[in-house]
Design a protein that fits this description.
This protein has 83 residues and is α+β, with helices and mostly antiparallel strands. The protein is 35% helix and 20% strand. The protein has a three-stranded antiparallel sheet.
Amino acid sequence: MDKPELKFEVIPSPHDPQVGASVGVRVHYGSMNVTAESTLKRTQYANKVEAVERLKKRLVAERFLSINDTDWIDANAFANDND
């Protein structure tokens, strides 16, 4: 995952302080147009880590759901190509 393709955005959270920055985080992966967010942690850093972990899971799920017949390979051809 290339960092330039990730866009982070600070969003409101139930844990925002009375005065100061919001601690919720939304991360967007441009290539696949997939977004994840976290607002339940108490710090912006913890929400960023959680949002990235959620994004990873969504990207794996997107890839898994998009598997089709052209993604499968013939075991014999694979074995012969790697001899």
